[in-house]
Amino acid sequence: MDARAIASLACVELAAYKAALACERGAMVTRAVHSELVFCLSPTRHISEAFRRFGGDENTRALIVCKFDANDEDLERVRSVVKGELVAFDARPAVDEAALKKWYKVHENELEIGSLADAVLSRIAIRDVA
Amino acid sequence: MRALGVDDAARALSQGAEARVFALEFCGRDAICKQRFAKKYRLPALDERLTRARLVGEARAIVRARKLGVRAPMVLHVDANEACVYMERVAGVALKEALRRETCTREDIARYGREIGEAISKLHDGGLVHGDLTTSNFMVRDDDGAVVVIDFGLSYPSAVPEDKGVDLYVLERAINAAHPSQTELFDEIIATYKKTSKMWCATLNRFAEVRARGRKRSMVG
């Protein structure tokens, strides 16, 4: 995932939870649990848009990698595939707030009572019922 | 990982006519889970539809309230299969308890009144009616003392002055019944509502009418 499009770690956790739940119930929209995670991050049900916005590609400067049931071997492979330096989650580059506000339709009113990350989390939470 | 509806570590907090509320941890934060249960007396197909519609309605209403800048608990997850809404747990006490404390001063009451008045006027101006305004459905948050609106289970979108008037009337009745010696709370709420709502005039006129006749409209004739 593109780290600049991820508002907080809680958002990733929630999307991972939703993806795992969908997988377990056989209710996945995409083909694999990892792609489902990226899809769950999106405020819309548009799959290719979700990948465009949240997925990483060869031009991504900051990457977040998620693996379900990861073991040491998996992590080792990730390290060898990604060209870059491993940093702590909180040391990642600044998120693209303008883009997040636009994608998740967050207005100023809402930011008076909570952070942008909170607003994004709510959108992820109610995507399927909104 | 289990498809948790309510996991074993969950603690039951309360139960009402529509749902049970549990405390649990969700994605690393303190949360509550509000699970609606099946009503045995209803036709199963109908029951399922009603439960789902209300579940979805509640989640939407909360997020809509937050969009309007009203303090309400964050929705964390909606599980339609289990009829659960997961919400952030607000650490604090119900306004009802806060008002009954001996340490509750006139200034506190005035501040609660202002915050509630502002919250209700934001909801109403944004076309959302809470539907169950009582002093149990406001919480006073521990860390900053702010008033948080909870339980949007009976909430519905409406722009009609009648619905807003009834909303205020229900609150007035609730305050008069539960806190007869602190009715200045409601005066403060109305005063703030008048100042902040753009449509206060129509609503308060209707409120006066509702007050004269009661919550239900007479359908005679």
UniProtKB/TrEMBL annotation, chain A:
Any one cellular-component term (Gene Ontology): cytosol
Subcellular location, record wording: Nucleus
Entry superkingdom: Eukaryota
Show the Pfam families listed in the entry.
CGI-121
**Record's keyword terms, sorted:** Nucleus, tRNA processing
What is this protein's record name? EKC/KEOPS complex subunit CGI121
> What does the record give as the organism's lineage?
Eukaryota, Viridiplantae, Chlorophyta, Mamiellophyceae, Mamiellales
Q: Which family does it belong to?
A: Belongs to the CGI121/TPRKB family.
Query: What SUPFAM superfamilies does this protein's entry cite?
Result: PF0523-like
- State where it is primarily located: nucleus
Q: NCBIfam families attached here?
A: PRK14886.1-1
A Gene Ontology biological process term: tRNA threonylcarbamoyladenosine modification
Q: What is the organism of origin for this protein? A: Ostreococcus lucimarinus (strain CCE9901)
**Matching Gene3D superfamilies, A to Z?**
CGI121/TPRKB
From TrEMBL, chain B:
**Which keywords has UniProt assigned to this entry?**
ATP-binding, Hydrolase, Kinase, Nucleotide-binding, Nucleus, Phosphoprotein, Serine/threonine-protein kinase, Transferase, tRNA processing
The record, for InterPro entries, names:
Bud32, Kinase-like_dom_sf, Prot_kinase_dom, Tyr_kinase_AS
Q: Which SUPFAM superfamilies match?
A: Protein kinase-like (PK-like) (SSF56112)
For the biological process aspect of GO, one term held by this record is:
tRNA processing
A Gene Ontology cellular component where this protein is annotated is: nucleus
Q: What is its EC number?
A: 2.7.11.1
Gene3D superfamilies for this protein: Phosphorylase Kinase, domain 1, Transferase(Phosphotransferase) domain 1
Q: Which residues does the UniProt record annotate as the domain Protein kinase?
A: 7-221
Question: Where is this protein localized, as stated in its record?
Answer: Nucleus
MF-aspect GO terms: ATP binding; hydrolase activity; protein serine/threonine kinase activity
Major site of localization recorded for this protein: nucleus
The membrane-spanning stretches of this chain are: none
Q: What catalytic activity does the UniProt entry give for this protein?
A: L-threonyl-[protein] + ATP = O-phospho-L-threonyl-[protein] + ADP + H(+); L-seryl-[protein] + ATP = O-phospho-L-seryl-[protein] + ADP + H(+)
Q: Has UniProt tagged this entry with the keyword NAD?
A: no
Cite the PANTHER family for this sequence. Answer: EKC_KEOPS COMPLEX SUBUNIT TP53RK (PTHR12209:SF0), NON-SPECIFIC SERINE/THREONINE PROTEIN KINASE (PTHR12209)
Family membership, please give it. Belongs to the protein kinase superfamily. BUD32 family.
Protein name according to UniProt: non-specific serine/threonine protein kinase
- The scientific name of the source species is Ostreococcus lucimarinus (strain CCE9901)
Source organism lineage? Eukaryota, Viridiplantae, Chlorophyta, Mamiellophyceae, Mamiellales
